Amino acid sequence: MSDASSAAPRGDAAASPDGAPTGPGPAGAPPRARGGRIAAGALLRAVRPKQWLKNLLVFAAPGTAGLLGDPVVLAWSAAAFVLFCAASSGTYLLNDVRDAPRDRLHERKRTRPVAAGELSPSVAAGTGAVLLLAAPAAAVPTGNWPLLAVLAGYLVLTTAYTLVLKNAAVLDLVAVAGCHVLRAVAGGAAIGVPLTRWFLIVVCLGALLVVTGKREAELRTPGAARTRDALGRYSLSYLTQVRTMASAAMIVTYCLWALEDPATTPASVVHGASIVPFILVVLRYHLLVDRGVGEEPEEIALRDRPLQLCGAALLALVGFGVYLA
Can you tell me the mean pLDDT for 183-198? Predict the structure, then answer.
């Protein structure tokens, strides 16, 4: 990893060994984080609340099982969602502290609060550590050991990613996709619902599709390869092939699930009809990645209206089919 003081573009603030800006710097440089004072707005942005959207995966297993109408199930699912929001935000904060020197070389990531000097690295690291410890600690009194085990696995995987795996090509894709899968598994663990092979395969392939699309969009950004070791080891053609493979296998798996019931029942008809919006979601996502806007999947989900409409139709049909079944 290159030293921040030598690699930073002209005009950035000088950086201390821990990556924190030490002075106001020339015009246009990020502001100095003074005396560890917590800037509430900067801290709120640093925990990345938009990315909590990923944690909605904990509702997938109870939702496809038709159990979200049960208040107890809904409460456990909501608790799992909160725990994963805390754990993931803690990971983001520690990642930002560790990656601050390189983030300053990235045209978008340089605006993150730690890299921009709006949030003290010590405050970010301390808050991140508290959140990482608070998530499993809050799960212990509930006595829900399956949920605690999945949460612990998530923390181990995210820690391994931060320290080692993020710099290993291919393994970084698997690690981030695995974090998404663990969110979905946590939803089943929280309420004791067994996960079907169809569910796990679709979730695994979908996670790989999204992560690969994110890396591909990052690689299309000029100079982005300097900010991540593994990124420079990929090629656009390789990532496109992985994305195509994952989406093709996912569509086939979903179709096999949707058409599994040979009988013509209302539920089977609705499930079969859900194939159409499912494929449209995948096709729309491919189009957006090809346009180079897949670097932030949560932004796509929040802003792209066609994707939202197709996703809403998919959820409605799947939910209606589960209800009928």
Answer: 94
